[in-house]
Structures are given as structure tokens and as C-alpha cells.
Hints:
Three copies of one chain form a homotrimer.
Chain A: H1 2-11, E1 20-24, H2 28-39, E2 43-47, E3 62-64, H3 66-72, E4 75-78, H4 87-90, H5 92-95, E5 99-102, H6 116-123, E6 128-131, H7 138-142, E7 151-156, H8 159-171, E8 175-178, H9 185-190, H10 200-229, H11 242-271, H12 280-287, H13 289-308, H14 314-330, H15 338-364, H16 367-371, H17 375-401, H18 418-422, H19 424-436, H20 439-449
Family (chains A, B, C): Belongs to the STEAP family.
Cofactor (chains A, B, C): heme b; FAD
Keywords (chains A, B, C): Copper, Endosome, FAD, Flavoprotein, Ion transport, Iron, Iron transport, Membrane, Metal-binding, Oxidoreductase, Transmembrane, Transmembrane helix, Transport
Amino acid sequence: MNSDSVAMTELHGKMQEQETVCIFGTGDFGRSLGLRLLQSGYNVVYGSRDPKNSLLLPKGSKVMAHAAAACEAHVIFVAVQREHYGFLKSLASTLAGKVLIDVSNNLRRGLYPESNAEYLSSLVPGATVVKAFNTISAWALQSGGLDANRQVLICGDRADAKQQVVDIAQSLGFTVLDRGSLRAAAELEDLPLQLFPLWRLPFCIAFCLTAFIFFYALTRDVIYERVTNGKDNAFRIMISLANRVFPIVSLVMLALCYLPGALAGFLQLYNGTKYRRFPDWLDRWMLCRKQLGLLALAFGFLHVLYTLVIPIRYYVRYRINVYVISLVKDNKTYEFDNTVAWRHDAYISMGILGFGLFVLLGITSLPSVSNSLNWREFSFVQSKLGYMTLLLCTAHTFLYGWDKFLRTSSYRWWMPPSYMLSLVVPCVVLILKLILIMPCVDRKVTRIRQGWERQSKTSSNCSDTKTNQPLMA
Amino acid sequence: MNSDSVAMTELHGKMQEQETVCIFGTGDFGRSLGLRLLQSGYNVVYGSRDPKNSLLLPKGSKVMAHAAAACEAHVIFVAVQREHYGFLKSLASTLAGKVLIDVSNNLRRGLYPESNAEYLSSLVPGATVVKAFNTISAWALQSGGLDANRQVLICGDRADAKQQVVDIAQSLGFTVLDRGSLRAAAELEDLPLQLFPLWRLPFCIAFCLTAFIFFYALTRDVIYERVTNGKDNAFRIMISLANRVFPIVSLVMLALCYLPGALAGFLQLYNGTKYRRFPDWLDRWMLCRKQLGLLALAFGFLHVLYTLVIPIRYYVRYRINVYVISLVKDNKTYEFDNTVAWRHDAYISMGILGFGLFVLLGITSLPSVSNSLNWREFSFVQSKLGYMTLLLCTAHTFLYGWDKFLRTSSYRWWMPPSYMLSLVVPCVVLILKLILIMPCVDRKVTRIRQGWERQSKTSSNCSDTKTNQPLMA
Amino acid sequence: MNSDSVAMTELHGKMQEQETVCIFGTGDFGRSLGLRLLQSGYNVVYGSRDPKNSLLLPKGSKVMAHAAAACEAHVIFVAVQREHYGFLKSLASTLAGKVLIDVSNNLRRGLYPESNAEYLSSLVPGATVVKAFNTISAWALQSGGLDANRQVLICGDRADAKQQVVDIAQSLGFTVLDRGSLRAAAELEDLPLQLFPLWRLPFCIAFCLTAFIFFYALTRDVIYERVTNGKDNAFRIMISLANRVFPIVSLVMLALCYLPGALAGFLQLYNGTKYRRFPDWLDRWMLCRKQLGLLALAFGFLHVLYTLVIPIRYYVRYRINVYVISLVKDNKTYEFDNTVAWRHDAYISMGILGFGLFVLLGITSLPSVSNSLNWREFSFVQSKLGYMTLLLCTAHTFLYGWDKFLRTSSYRWWMPPSYMLSLVVPCVVLILKLILIMPCVDRKVTRIRQGWERQSKTSSNCSDTKTNQPLMA
């Protein structure tokens, strides 16, 4: 490489000593970007309306009027808000042939008919516009990309212009993902404005479920008591009722997180192929399984806390003390019931083990953990351990109920105890799964998932993207 | 860069407008890959046995017969299962000089004598085979690599072919790790089939320990009671016994996680150098310290939950109530014992602080957290805080036992209480560590770890790879 | 790409078959580096004082005397401790024109007046020195960069030399961040020696607060009791006192984590611009908000554990039993107080919900999670949910106190109950925030943060780096 490498560097644009980059706009983003560029060995020239009054710019950069600045460099960052793009039209001739990087974002979605980058391109048709860096915050630029998001998404119509932006982004320590032509700019500009899009459906489900179970339990436990016995139980809302609602919502949502996978399996069996698309609702459901599972875990976590504080509660201490006093006064004997002890301990134990596994599932779905697992490990954890969790939690609920469902006293106003409602979905899921793992069915499903079809015989790679994969991730 | 950069782009392969890439195989992986390539600005041509019937392919791609498709591109992805590789032989002349990327995986390990990539290379000797992308799932390709594993492992015999694959992978937003020549392909093909290889040994240890302690405690607490007093205590298995087994396993495994480091220190002292290899068993033990520690944390977590539910248990409430009733009836005075209060609170407090530190250790061993620490910070947390955790948990156990070991009644059938068993390993580790941190010994160990040797004097960099590093990570 | 790409590879240095790299030093780092370079397709030549006795070097590498080794390659890694740099002076003529990569670290900060890299450059003025890889451990090199820190920081004075180092680092699977000229080497050499620099201030605050609250509570609860009633309450230190100190420290630190943001808002209002720098103390405070928050969470976690063990404590069981016995003996009636039940349950419930949200904030501040959020999501979680947490925890404390502050008996030696102290800072923060979100003030603040100024009208990008961003991250 000795003599050759020196010759090579002359050819290579990146290696030219101190390439110059221009930045229009001296706001936060412009300044952070300039600082980072200077640190990475670029010359930086700012274009400003008022070069004399541009304070706080990083040391080592120059400030000029827009036109003069534009002449200094081939690549120009447009770090100006869209409303101020107007002045660029007058610079059109100066900017012809240059690469303009649009880094702008909007305050709301759908504010303008076309994306900022396409608007910029229409203003300066002679220049090549590349959309990039808009998902990176000024903060991420300043903090050296060490713990902030390091991925720069770019799009643009010309490959050579994009390559220059890729080079700059990589010099700055970012990784780059190309999202195609400038038509993708609208999508990129929407990204920073999204607010948990995948969480929306799970949140709705959680909210509706919580509201329904809450009013159901309220009717059974508080209103019924009030109407039939005239007792005021309203204080029970804060903890007793909460601790009735949370576990039910948690269990149902955990089951909902595994239901679509089971349904998909049956659908594939019915279709006899995995190459037919699932109905849209099933697709959308499957995409938010991870979020469903994590919400279920949050509710489960609250259930655990609410359960563990039980013995600290004033009401519980009162009840126990009154019971003991009555036992003493009435001189009754107090029998130990072995079956109750077994059942009670088993029910608590199932709950703890289920919760422990659930926490493990949650930890495994942390991005950095799931990234360090290979496919087989990930699906082992999310599928095998996931069903084990569901099984333990369902058993926990069954043991909690025990033989209550036989006693008529537990049906108030014909409403069964709320825990019984929570068992419907998990049981359906477990039964479906049981059918799917029966040897004869399993063999067929596995064959379908490996690419076999009932009619044709397309060759295909073995990894399955739909039903196996995103069980909870 | 102005005029120069344009000239440069002509030379640069990546910047040619729309490079064409061919994909053999229209299965899940082929389709996801094609979609991603299209998004990143490549032309995609599919090779298919039945071009007319290839549905669901991404928009913008073309489908042809294999031979025609192969002519369109220099780089060809072979996204076909190994069993169908046969047809490639007939295309050997068309494929000569091309770069074939083998992305295949097998269903089980050891299914074939040679790796798929080497088999492919033997079928088409004129082409250059590069193994790559087999650790990436179709899902990771689809989801844009944002939260799925972003590292592509590649291997191959020719550097220029590998460089072309590296360029494609980087354009797709992946990072690349070169694993050497095509002989490494077998190893790469095994990677997606591994199931927690580093966890196997720790799991075995945990399982054996749990089984042993369980049967030990079962004998002492349930069988002994049954045989000598005729009492049926079997219901205690669910919680009381579990809560005896979990903390013991947790403490012993935490100690086992620090034992190899201490042993290694003594071995280095004995050898007088750090450049002699450790025995194999010690090496293997040290490699799974993180896993040992995390399993210990899991058992500790269960111990905490099982302890916190104690006051909710039917059995415990029964016992307390019966006790109070008997006090009232017998009209006994109930004395407050200050020492017991101190001991009891101290024992609980140590446990809580130890568990708190343990959770901190666990959080620090999350990949994303440990990556953000430098070497000194990481070893401070895992070594200093780790030993502090061990010390607190051992103290917790000692205070729990207090003077029980003096009472003969606690030795049933000559078996000491189970908590005493759990103290052996931690005490050994703590004593070894105490010796190692004595100033005179410590000076010697530090010198050895900085590269000094008893006989020779090799210069070396100061970072130590064996004994300091992977204390728990 | 067909014929062209072959021509291209001839030009491209990276693609030449088997570039040779030289490593001076056969210590841990040198060996790990060599192994990794070999795996990535480089030829490796070691330079050693004693080539005959260099054992344990990776297979495939060659060992020579320093001068001979240096002739083999253009790029030379200097993996030797600074004290041994002397011999390089005699090789100055051989090394002229080469690229020397300084990978060294020191044992302590400030050991030498100039950085190792600058010292190396002064010893061999004819060579180009690049500082790199010093933040990467031998371990990270060995383990393939899969779960260790993958970012290589480099600095140096010549762009072409740096580019060669960048190419090598990327071939090895690392990402690179350029930190500028060789003057930055001192900073890079300090990085691996830092011990949680951002945590220092929060730790001091936590320590001082804990000490103060501890002695305050000790005086009120133990010493006062001893002096006035002669009762020995010292055993309460272990749990009761700890559980008084932890929640107070937690709440105050949580509030301290949101106070600077509120202050900054008022400062911007007062200045009428966001482009004036904040005073230094405010800047430093804002930079450690994440650490303040995480410490507050740790204290909160301990508070939860200390609270949940209450019913297990010997002292608590004793108190309850004595109370019940006294009730029975005195034949008193035991009235249920509905208000107390409400208040008690509400207070516990607020605490649980606050803690749940707090844990969520903590999870969101894990690097891998916060990286997967966009700007809007991150600020929603850290700002909206953060204030909600603060509100819930403050309400929890208020409900805990209830009307105690009215009773004179709770002022011992004129000292108010310790919980009252903890409410000062949170209330100040909540009131400041309340003012800031009043519509009239909010509109002004928003306008300022979007770049408007009272006097001038600079155009600026909309993302705000100071007050919105690092609320807890």
C-alpha cells in the first residue's frame, strides 16, 4: 500500500484536505451541525441574512451573506424553517448544480400539501435536493452521537448527491439508511412528528378493557352492596377494585398478544399456504403484539404491587383484628384447613412464577437484548416461554377462583365474578395452541411454514416472517 | 469539491446510477431482500423457475428465468434452500466470474458434511461465493434494521467480492463484520441454530443446585416432621420450601460467579505471569460468569417475591391468629425483645440493600448500558459493587441464622439447617478476595496484571483481558 | 457493474488482496488486535524486541525485529506503553512517512504534561500520528465487537492518514467518530480513565441530602424519645428510619431533576430570547438531570422494598399483637373509620401509581430504548409523564401527612415532621410549572423556543436544544 495509497488519496474526494460545507441558517440546528462538522475536519461557512449579527456560531466557522456562502461549497445544508424558504428562489442561479440538504421538520402533520424537500426542489430546480438529518436532533449532534440515535435517514433522486451526504453523515459518526427517492421525503418528515403510532391500538384496547372491567366490578362490589345491604364500600375503589381490574386486564391482554399467532396458524392451515396475505385486521393486530404484551406486563406489575401492600392497609388490619377479637370473645375453635393452605399457596406460587417469566419476556424485548439474540433464541423465549407465562397466569386465576363458580352467592344480579370473565380469552388461546401443537396438525403447519403449498411447489428460504416472528417483539 | 467531485463519482462504483442486483428465489427472504434493495436504490431482478407465477414480489422488480436474470447483474443473491441448489450446476457457465451470495441456513446442525456456501462453491467453481446475511431474518430486512440486529457477518475467499457485499450491506443500513475465508461459513451457518450456548453450563449448575437443596430441605422440613411427629406439612412445599431453596441457590451462584476471578488471581500469583493460559475448565467458567450472575439475580428476585407474600398467606395468618388467641387465653405477658428487633431489622435491611445492588448489577449488564460505560467504570461496577453485593447477601444470611447453628434442635437427622450449606462457597470467595486485596499481595497481582513477569520483561499494553474483564458481563 | 467494477477495485486500496499492517508490541492488546486484523483479511507483522521469544501470538502472523517489521507496512499500531516509547526515536528514519496509530492509555490522569500521541509525534516527527482505539479494550477486540462498545474515537492532524485508520476500523466492524486534530488526543486519553463524571454531582447531592435527613430524623425519632421519655428506640434505625430517609431523598431529587428546566423557562422569558447562554451552574445542573432522576428512582425502589417488608418485621407484629390483646382485655369496641380507610388507600394507591410511572421513566432512559424513540416521543415521556410522576409522588406525601401538620404534638423540639421538609422543593417546582403552562405564558415561551426574539428576528430551525431536550435523558 506504500506508494500506491498516496496516489489513491488524491483521487478520493473524502481525503482532500478540509472539504468546505455551507450551512444556511444560524439557529440551534445550524450551529450544532456546524460544530460537529468542524470537529470532523470540514470547513464550515454559514450563510446568513445578517452576517454581522450572527453570534454564538462555533469557533473556526465563517459567516457570509447567503450568495457568497453558497459559492464556497458544493454541499449546502438548508437549516431554515420552511416559511423562510422564499429567499432561496432568488439564489437559484447560484445554487444550480449544488447539492441542497433539507433538514427541516414541520410543527404538525399535514400542514403543507407537499413535503418541505419537494417544495425546496421546486423553488431551486437546478439544484439536487437530498432530504436528510431531519430525524436527528440538535442535541444528538452536540452530544457526539454517543447515546442518541445514530441513524440518519436520507432520500433523494440522484445517487451521486446522496452518496456525498452519506459520506458526510458517516464522517460525523452516523450510520445511514437510504429510503429511496425524494417522494419518500414526506414520510421522513412525518417520522419526528409521530407519537407512538404502534402503541395507539394497544392503548385503546387497554383503556376500553379497563373501563369495562372497572364498571363491572364497581357494580358487583360497591353498588350491589349499597343497594342490597345499604353498606358503603366506596373506599374499596382505591385498592380492592384496582387490584381486581389490573390482573384481569393484564391476563386478557397477554392472551390477546398470543391469539393472532394462533389464528394465523389456523388460517394458514385453511389456506394450505403461507403465501396468501392475512386479512388487514390480523396484520395490524400482529404488528402490535409486542406493545400488547408490554402493556399487559405494566398492568401485571401494578397488580403485584397492589397485592403486596394488602397487609399494610388499614382496612385489612381492621378486618383481621376484628376477626381475632370475635374468635376470642365467642371462644370458638379455629381449625386449620389443609386444602385451603394448599390451594392458597399454590395460587400465590403460580402467580409469582408467572410474573417472573413475564418480567423475563419484558427484558428480552428490550431492543439491546433482543438484538443480541439469534432468531431461534428469540422465538424460543417469546413463543415457548410466552405460552408458559400464559399457562401459569391462567392457572393462577383458576386456583384463585377454585369452586367459587359453583356457589350461587357469587352471582350477584346474575353477574358472574369478574375473574371468570378474564378466563375466556386465555382459555380460547390455550385450546387453539393445544390443537396446533398436536403432532398431526403440527407436522402440517411446519411444512406450510417451510414453504410447501397444497398446490404448487415454490422454492423458498426457510425463515418465516409472518407467524413465527414477531410474537412479542 | 466542486468540479472534482463530479469526476470522482464516475469512478466510484457505488455512485453509478442504479446498480442491478439479482436474487435467485422468490421466498420470504428473497422478497424482503428485494424490497429493501429497491428502497436503497438498486435495480432488482428475480430469477425464478416459474417467472409467470411469481406473485407478491415487490413493485419495481423484474422476474425472469434464472439464466436470463443472472446475465443482468454481477452480484447474485442465492436465496434458495440447499436442497434446491442442484439447478445452479447447469448455470455454471453463465455464473462464471459472478459473485454469488449464499444467504442460506439449515434446519439442524450437522445435517451436511460441508457448509452450504462451500457446497455452492463446489457446484459453481467459476463464481466467487460469499457467505453473508444468513444471520439476518427476513423480518429484520423488512423493518428497516431499526430495532433488529444490524450486524451482517460475512466470509469469503476473495477480498474484492467481499468488498462488493460490504458495500451492498452498508447501503442497506447494516454494519458488517468480516469473519475471514469461506472455511468460516460452517461457523456462520451454525450461529442462527444456536440456542443460548453460554447459558447451558449455568443452567445445569442452577438445576442441579436447585434439585439438591430442594430434596435436602424436603427431607429436613417435611419428611422429618412426618416421620418423627406424624404431622403433614406437605403444603409447605409451594412457598415455604421454595423460599428456602431460591435464596440458597441465588447466594451460591452469586459466589460461583466471583470464585473463578479469585482463583485466576491466585493462579497468576503462582505462575508469576499473566501470559500463561488458564486451564480449560477455568476459562469456560470465566466465560459464563455473566450468565451465572444473571441466573442468581433471577433466583434472588423470586426469593424477594416469595418473602413479600408471606403475610398474605393463609397459613401465616392462621399461625399469627392462633398465637394471639393463645396469648389472650393463657393471660401471658408478651415481652418485647430488643435484640431480636435489632437482629431482625438488620437482617431484612441487609437483604434489601444487597438486592438493590444486585438489581443495579443486572441493569449494568444490559448490552446497551454496558456499552456506554468505559473500561474503568465497568470494572468498578462489576468488581467493587459485585463484591459489595456478595458481602451484603452473605451478612444477610448470617444474621438470618444468628445462633441457630449452636442449638442441637436445628440438626435434624444430623443435617444442619439448609442456610448453613449456602454459606460455604460465599465465605470461601470472600476469604480468597480478602487475601488478594491485602496490600502486599495486591501489589504483586497488580504488577503481574500490568504485564510484568517473574523471569522475562515483555512490554505490553496495560489492559488486562482475562481476570479483570468479564466479571459479570 | 460487470466489467467496470473489476477495474475499480484495482484503484481502491481496501480491495487490494491482503494489505499488511504492522503492530509494535506483543501484549494483550497487540495480540487481540492482531487476531482481529487477521480475521478481517489483513496480513499482520509484529515488531518485537525479542522476536524469538514472542509466544501466544495469533496464528498466521509474523514476528520480526521492530525495524524489519516497520518496513513491511505503511500503517503501524504502536501498542506499547508510553514508558517504552524511547526505542522509537532510533527508528525515526524507518518510520518517516508512515502512519503511526497510538493506542496507549495511562494509568492515571495528569501523569505527563503532554498526551502520549503528541509525545510520540515529537519522537518521530517524520511520521503521521493518529490517536485511535484507546477506548476499545482488548476484550472488545476479541469478542468481535458484538456486544462491547463499537465506537472508535480518532484524532490526528492529516486527513489522509485518518482516512486509512477509518478504513481499518470499519473493516474490523467498528464505527468511527473523528474528534479533530491531534490536540484532542489528551481528551481521548482521559476518556478511559473517567469514573462516572456526570454522576459525581448527583451523588454528592444524594449523599448530603441523605446525611441531613438521616440526622434530622434521628434527632426527632430516636434522640428525642430517649431524652424526653427515656425509651430506647435505637433499633428503629435499621428500617423505620431508613424508610423515612429514602422516600424524602427520592422525592426531593425527583423535584431537583425538573427544577432547572422550569428555571430555564423563566430565564428565557426574562431574557426574551433563547440565544443567550444560561449561567454555568444551570448548564451543569441540566446536564446531570438524567443521573438525578435515576438516583431518585433507586431511592424510590428502596423505599418500596422497605415499605413492603413492614408486615414481616418482628416489631410490627409485636405492636399489632399487643394492640389486639389490649383491645380484648379492655373490652373496647373497635370502630371502623371510613375517612381513614379512604385516606390510607388513596395514599398507598398514589404511591404505587407514581412508582409505576417512575419505573417507566427509568426504562425509557435506557440507551437502547431512548434511541428507538423520536424526539417528540422522548420529550412526551420525559416531560409529560415526568411531571405526572412528580405530581403523584407529591400527592402521595401530602396524603401521608394529612392533618399531622396541624397537631402541635408532631413538632418535637420545634422540628416539623421530616415529610414536611420533603414537600418544599416539589411544591416550588409544581407551582413554577403551573405558571409556565398557563396559556398566556405558554404562548410566549413557545414562541421564544421556536426562535423568536424580543428584538431581532433570526431565522432558525425549530428543534430546541436547551430547555426541552434533556429533561431526564
